[in-house]
Amino acid sequence: MSQKEITIYDIAEKLAISAATVSRALQNHPAVNAKTKKRIVDLANELGYQSNKFASNLRKQKTHTIGVIVPRLNSAFMSTVLSGIEKVANNAGYNLIISQSFETHDKEAQNAQTMFNNRVDALVISLAYDTKDYKHLNSFIKKKIPIIFFDRVADKIDATKVLIDNFKAGYQATEHLIQQGCKEILHITGNLSRNVYNDRFEGYKKALEDNGIKYDQKLLICNDLSEKAIEDCLKNDVLKRTKLPDGLFITSDPSAAYALTILKEAGVKVPQDMAIIGFNNDLISRVCEPAISTINYPGNQMGETIARILINHLNGESDINYMNTVILKTDLIVRNSSLKKK
Amino acid sequence: MSQKEITIYDIAEKLAISAATVSRALQNHPAVNAKTKKRIVDLANELGYQSNKFASNLRKQKTHTIGVIVPRLNSAFMSTVLSGIEKVANNAGYNLIISQSFETHDKEAQNAQTMFNNRVDALVISLAYDTKDYKHLNSFIKKKIPIIFFDRVADKIDATKVLIDNFKAGYQATEHLIQQGCKEILHITGNLSRNVYNDRFEGYKKALEDNGIKYDQKLLICNDLSEKAIEDCLKNDVLKRTKLPDGLFITSDPSAAYALTILKEAGVKVPQDMAIIGFNNDLISRVCEPAISTINYPGNQMGETIARILINHLNGESDINYMNTVILKTDLIVRNSSLKKK
Q1: Which interval of the chain is the signal sequence (chains A, B) (predicted)?
Q2: Interface mutation target, options A45, A74, A234, A337, chain B, most CBs of B under 10 Å
């Protein structure tokens, strides 16, 4: 830490040329000839010269960093989105600072404050399970630092949102099960105060209604979709019911795969006794037996879209304030877990 | 961007108190009484005051950021490690800058340079598939910026490594298949110039040797373990062989799950015709039918360990230079995909 910093003046002195030439060469300026450039760059590397992006950022009031807050890094869907954001942002010269809220409002607020103090140029956020208000984002809004919400978005804030049509996806999944002959469709999902789960649930209810099936609240189970929660609700509730539901719409593929495993162990035949449909189209849905029907949710494209919108805004090419909502396309993917009628 | 920055002087003026008091209050100094502190903090929030961590970092020559370069973000194993690093780093007040090399040396070198210029306090790296030399890390070494390698490590650099005993794990996996009666064990794995794959391969060979089975190089297939590569080598090679191998040791669980699906489709009975063992203990290995035997690789603990070592070093509590290699424990997990003898 306390080592002497190598400057362009040190390089200039050693090569007996001007500091201005060194500076231009290190920025790959065309006015410096290739041979000189090489001598300068080689010496810079040898001496361990570090361009002072940090100080230059401070002057420009830009950090070229984008803050990203996600509920959990450890999720196939999230890692696909992050991969898409990182790819586009990195190519445009932006770094990602990533943190996780662990599904709590407090940690999310704390992470937002840290990112604000670190002067990220933009914030990308998918809300925690229990985030109730958005006060922790006020400082960004006041300072006109662009915010993009994705997947789990805030309806009450006037910021850009990138998401899918969760209502439609929920409707499609449920309608598919009904078309396969299911009449009692269990819906296992997350916290209904989050748009993604609420909208899918509304789609589920509407599909039932449109097909003359009365909504039964005993067929709705909300939990955090963890392995523990899935095991719990199936073993201690669903599998003990006198009559098993004949369909299951569960809003994540890992949960669907895990539920399938538990149901099979309990002797439930899928799809004959219970047809299953998941959500996301993760690899896990394809390797199960039977393979699990699902809704294709293009996480990678979502990530790339988010980064492109932000970078165009930050570069002044387009104004994010005119773009309120971007809805990405989803598809119903039918596999054997739900095909009662072949 | 061009908005006027709120300073402690603005807050001091509005409250008719000294800037020093404002500064102390915002740092939660005990000398300022609670009531005054609250007035100051409330006004700071209202005005959108942003603590200048950025400039203060510049003065202190510390950024409180840790750079992390991984081959791909989109991997269950990597996201588990990242989640562990982030959790510990975040609690200690450090931010993570994360980037992916997309398995190429060039992108890895470019990302390392960006992180160096952004003055990360430390670098955490798992090497790309084709990284051949480590010149791109010289600037860190010269500047005494600590580097921790994990999983895919560089043997030739004197830096801290956090990994598992890949030789032992490869030996155990192979030995288990031999104990189940396998005599021709196919080994599908990654680039052997990476330690993780080479060490597992050496373990595989040693287990064969110790059990009097001659190593046959036709039973070694190296590729990038992508879905495409797995499909390719199975459909266009393995499944066309006159005699099928009776065992398969494949060094990642998603690949093992995908291979299982393809083999089952082709009518191969698992484990009777071919016993399978994977690597990592991802959820995907548990939901397959049959469930896939594997090596438990504690990604989350690996991430937490890495972050703790770094933070202890950065806080001056322990010196990373005395810690060369940390080896985490793995376990053989036997499931039905390899149980020929029940």
Answers
A1: none
A2: A74
